[in-house]
Amino acid sequence: MPELKASQAVSQAVKVLTKVKTWQLTAGAATLGLALSAVAVASAGPWDSSGQRTAEARRAASQEAGGGADHGRDGRDGRGGRSEEPDAAPSARAVLAAPRGSVPGPTKRALADVLDPLLNDPALGKRRTAAVVDAATGQRLYGKSSGDALTPASTTKLATAVAALSMPGSDHRIDTKTVIEPDSHEVVLVGGGDPTLTARKDAGPNASLRALADATAKELKGRDTDEITLSYDTSLYSGPLLHPIGPNENIAPVSALMADEARTDDSSSGPAPRESDPAAAATRKFADLLHDRGIRTKGEPGPRHAPGDAEKLAKVSSPPVSALVERMLTHSDNDIAEALARQVALATDGTASFEGGGEGIRKELEKLRIPLSGSHFADGSGLDRADKVSADLLTQVLAHAVERERPGLRPVLTGLPVAGFTGTLSKRYTDEADAAGIGLVRAKTGTLTGVNTLAGTVVDADGRLLVFAFMTDGTVNPGQAQAALDRLASTVANCGCR
């Protein structure tokens, strides 16, 4: 059968890759049809007072672009024009092969025989739950307490992704604009909630604060205006700016207006020092950019609600939600996650806050008939330990993304890190016991102190696409827990199990 032959070829290639070094794995990716790169990343220390670890975010920062993220579907350059740069390489198709192929799926008994002993590994802590589902039929093939809700950590982002792709939708873009009060020189920079807005010269696919300054200055000069009073409007969001975990380097204060995720260094992903007032910092930078373009600003910019009759001067737009979802999942980006949760809230007539975002996510999952028993969404990123979801919920979210009838959800799959190659999985699957999963396991990780999760897709030895979720609580050694989770996913990949 064609699917079986393809699977055998991939399996053979994987066996070769397991014996080579990291730089060879990068070259071997081309053989598998994975135009991806493996980048070494440092990991260290606790994230914050709650014990969140830096490892996950630093691994996520290993891929600056491509590999399932930032595909630039429509060639927009973030400045309203077309990009002359080639798009990043497409995501790995081999990982998504034959979800409805005629190859028989594994049996429940055979899966239980291989997974039960691994799930009993003490490294997985006091509580562990699991689910494996056939992507073609939606049938659960394996389950251990799969309906029990545990703290999901960053696998919460899978729910956020599906909700955002459903509403406001995969093509939605987030606008940042400038407006002027009629018959005045009062200009307001209005935030729409785009955390990827950038002040850097090379904006890439992101909305450019420089492009906004260009267009605003041109419009003002057309009005014979070269001096203004500048203020900023963040009223789109409500509730506290700070995440409940408090100030830390893994998430900026959640504001409707920020530039470069309010980073104070030159990083673009991973932990970094942040501005305490992202909106004020972005507006000061905008004022400097206007000054460079011949527009003077009077005084220090301050907050203001843009009047209802204000006239639009200029705007820039973010990449589409589909691209933001991919970037969020590949890099485990907390700032994008919280922004998308608020976009869901706004699209569902809710309040753009932590609470409103959680309610919006729940509403969208209910519409998709995702099992929500025991679930709670306290945020969109998974940094809050009050988040609760089940393995059944995670596998159903992934199963919905696989369905041909829901093409708008596909970025959930294409954004997942690939084992041994990208994002938070780029430096995992290094042990020989886990090597069968290289290139075939595609999954979102989750890490908090004592909490380790893994949920994603895998092509098994017979070419059958399966979705899985493994969740643990009460782990002591995070490295050992992650290795045990990787071994579970690799076993599914290596198992015909019939």
Topology, pairings included?
Layout: H1 2-17, H2 22-31, H3 55-60, H4 108-119, E1 127-134, E2 140-144, E3 149-150, H5 156-169, E4 175-180, E5 186-190, H6 209-222, E6 227-233, H7 278-292, E7 296-297, E8 302-303, E9 311-317, H8 321-331, H9 334-347, H10 354-367, E10 389-390, H11 391-402, H12 411-414, E11 441-448, E12 451-459, E13 465-473, H13 478-493
Parallel strand pairs: 5-6, 6-7, 6-8
Antiparallel strand pairs: 1-2, 1-13, 3-10, 4-5, 4-9, 11-12, 12-13
Helix pairs in contact: 4-13, 5-8, 5-9, 5-10, 5-11, 6-7, 8-9, 9-10
Describe the structure.
- There is one protein chain.
- With 498 residues, the protein is α+β, with helices and mostly antiparallel strands.
- Helix content is 32%, strand content 14%.
- It has 13 helices and 13 strands.
- The protein has helices at 2-17, 22-31, 55-60, 108-119, 156-169, 209-222, 278-292, 321-331, 334-347, 354-367, 391-402, 411-414, 478-493, and strands spanning 127-134, 140-144, 149-150, 175-180, 186-190, 227-233, 296-297, 302-303, 311-317, 389-390, 441-448, 451-459, 465-473.
- The strands form three sheets. Strands 4, 5, 6, 7, 8 and 9 form a six-stranded mixed sheet that branches. Strands 2-1-13-12-11 form a five-stranded antiparallel sheet, sandwiched between helices.
- Strand 11 (441-448) and strand 12 form a beta hairpin.
- Helix 5 (156-169) runs antiparallel to helix 8, helix 5 packs across helix 10 and helix 5 crosses helix 11.
- The longest helix is centred in the N-terminal third of the chain and has 16 residues, at 2-17.
- The two termini are 17 Å apart.
- The relative contact order is 0.21.
- Residues 1-100 have low confidence and may be disordered.
